[in-house]
Design brief:
Arc Repressor Mutant, subunit A; alpha+beta; Chorismate lyase; elongated
Length: about 230
């Protein structure tokens, strides 16, 4: 991708983020140095440096003198809130973890999906429904929408063995996230899957993540009322 007229730092930043997001440059791998990028994009070295600084602040790359610039293994938006891997969360409590894929469907985004996932109606999305169990009892029902434009390899993953939670944490870097936690009443489907009364309260977590301006996923995670959210400060 050679540019003879010079590129702005935003163009360079977004192109590097795209390559990382699509795993052209894989987690843990070294990316080309500033001089190589300067030649490729036809830009000043200071412009390339600014683009790399923004990506480093966003948590996508790690820069070390005399070593180079590397795609981070598990990108995250600062160390304020780490997205938990459900299997590890359950096992850390001394329980046996089990995973079930309930539904996997590639389809066009409807109006409600588009609002939740921040995409245009008609966009191809992946809709997944999964159940996470602790000692054989329902722990979390996961209802997730994924935007393949931000994570193209997701369409090749059957999710029969590994859940989307774990896959995304390790395979789809993000630069921005939005989190909500609330008490709610379950839908009829949620109550049936969790094995609770139709009007029993549930603890719900909702999360959306983006790679720069490109939305990656929206997920609704529903737990029985006995669930407790634990976080270390």
């Amino acid at each position: 991708m050679t540019r003879s007229n010079g590129s702005s730092y935003r163009v360079i930043r977004d192109e590097i983020a795209r390559r990382i997001g699509e795993q052209i440059w894989k987690p843990g791998s070294l990316i080309p140095g500033e001089e190589a990028l300067r030649i490729e994009f036809g830009a000043a070295r200071a412009t390339v440096n600014r683009a790399l600084q923004e990506l480093a602040r966003a948590g996508l790359i790690e820069r070390k003198r005399k070593v180079g610039t590397r795609v981070v293994l598990r990108p995250m938006r600062e160390a304020r809130f780490v997205i938990p891997i459900v299997s590890q969360e359950i096992e850390a409590q001394g329980h046996t973890y089990t995973y079930r894929l309930l539904a996997r469907r590639e389809r066009m985004a409807e109006k409600e999906d588009a609002l939740l996932l921040d995409v245009e109606p008609g966009t191809v999305i992946l809709h997944l429904k999964c159940l996470h169990l602790a000692d054989g009892r329902p722990y979390q029902f996961e209802d997730r929408l994924i935007n393949p434009a931000a994570a193209p390899q997701v369409l090749d993953e059957p999710f029969e063995v590994i859940g989307p939670n774990e896959w995304l944490v390790t395979s789809a870097p993000f630069t921005r996230g939005e989190f909500s936690f609330l008490a709610d009443r379950p839908s009829a489907e949620e109550a049936d899957i969790l094995g609770i009364a139709p009007h029993a309260p549930v603890f719900v977590g909702e999360r959306r993540t983006w790679l720069l301006a490109r939305p990656i996923t929206f997920v609704r995670m529903v737990h029985p009322q006995t669930h407790r959210l634990r976080s270390a400060l």
